[in-house]
Design goal:
The chain is mainly alpha-helical. 62% of the residues lie in helices and 4% in strands. It has helices spanning 2-12, 25-53, 66-69, 79-93, 99-125, 134-153, 162-165, 184-196; strands at residues 167-169, 176-179. Helix 4 (79-93) runs antiparallel to helix 5 (99-125), helix 5 (99-125) packs antiparallel against helix 6 (134-153) and helix 6 crosses helix 8.
Length: 198
């Protein structure tokens, strides 16, 4: 939002040339991180108190281990605060027309829904084992990975040139190691599932 507003003002009013600073990704990344941090500081304690008062608390699995007993009563759905902080800072500081931003929002929405449903079921049944099953979680993660891979390999909606979308690169090197072709889809599914379960 601020990116588009400052771009418009910078392009139309010469006296506001200092707004060119908002064009730099590094500046906006720092501001975005600070915004998320401030939101967490301002609302973190209030949200935890609200969740606790409304009995939205964890009922950890009992393995006769002392450390799990100490988690009893810990508020769940704290991810809401993280989602609020990330969503707000992204809306404020990102280029909303960039396709990577759209992909990011797709991931944010998907994994927010997965997490919310999982936490809701745990709270509703007052049992940590009654959330989403491991199989369901893996299927949801793999489904998102598949959609992501299809987006990257589809010319009209891919955020990168389709010729390089399926190529595997090592960071900081400009040379492609291998073109995975349609093997890119299972590779992306594997990466998404691996990262979300790391």
């Amino acid at each position: 939002m601020l990116y588009h507003l400052t771009t418009y003002l910078y392009d139309t009013i010469d006296a506001l040339s200092f707004l060119r600073l908002f064009q730099y990704l590094s500046f906006r990344a720092i501001c975005s991180a600070l915004t998320a941090f401030v939101i967490t500081l301002l609302f973190g304690e209030r949200l935890i108190r609200l969740l606790y008062v409304n009995h939205i608390r964890d009922n950890p699995r009992s393995y006769d281990i002392q450390s799990t007993a100490s988690k009893a009563g810990t508020p769940v759905m704290g991810g809401l605060l993280i989602i609020l902080a990330i969503f707000t800072s992204t809306i404020l500081w990102c280029d909303l027309l960039n396709r990577f931003t759209g992909i990011f929002f797709l991931a944010l929405i998907c994994f927010t829904v997965f997490g919310a449903v999982d936490d809701y079921k745990k709270v509703k049944h007052k049992d940590s084992d009654r959330g989403l099953s491991q199989k369901t979680k893996l299927l949801c993660q793999a489904g998102y990975g598949l959609v992501l891979g299809i987006i990257f390999l589809t010319p009209d909606i891919s955020p990168v040139k389709v010729e390089i979308a399926s190529q595997l690169y090592i960071p900081f090197l400009k040379v492609s190691l291998v073109d995975l072709g349609w093997w890119y889809l299972p590779f992306i599914v594997f990466v998404v599932v691996s990262i979300t379960n790391a």
